[in-house]
Amino acid sequence: MKIDLREAVETAETLLAELRKWDGHETNDTKSRAATRERTELTRTLLYLSHLANKVGVEVMDEYHAYKARGDSPLNEADGA
């Protein structure tokens, strides 16, 4: 039986690349339009990164539930399923 976590791995790689890109980023705290745009982009990016992290968890749980539904999980024997 093969566990397929390709989707989770691809999402995690995207997340890791973006985390590395934004790590240590200095924000512009002035009141200019450019600074406001930059802070808006950062806010949206951080929300997107949070979404990617949640997506990885969902993809892993999808595979877990598919695995459990196939009846291969030792947990099925323990809980009488």
What does this structure look like?
Helix content is about 75%, strand content about 0%. The protein is mainly α and about 80 residues long. α1 (about 5-20) runs antiparallel to α2 (about 35-70).
Overall residue-averaged pLDDT value? 89
Which oligomeric state applies?
A: single chain
Shape: rod-shaped
Largest sheet, strands/sense/barrel: none
Rg, alpha carbons: 19 Å
How many helical stretches?
A: 3
Rounded to the nearest angstrom, the distance between the terminal CA atoms is 19 Å
- Strand tally is 0
Q: Which regions are unreliable across 5 or more consecutive residues at pLDDT < 50? A: none
Order of helices and strands: HHH
Helix content: over 70%
- Report the β-strand fraction as a percent range: under 5%
Quickly give the structural class: mainly alpha
Q: What is the strand and helix layout of this fold?
A:
Layout: H1 6-22, H2 33-69, H3 74-79
Helix pairs in contact: 1-2
List keywords for this structure.
single chain; 81 residues; mainly alpha; 3 helices; 74% helix; rod-shaped
Summarize the structure.
The protein is built from 3 helices and no strands. It has helices spanning 6-22, 33-69, 74-79. The two termini are 19 Å apart.
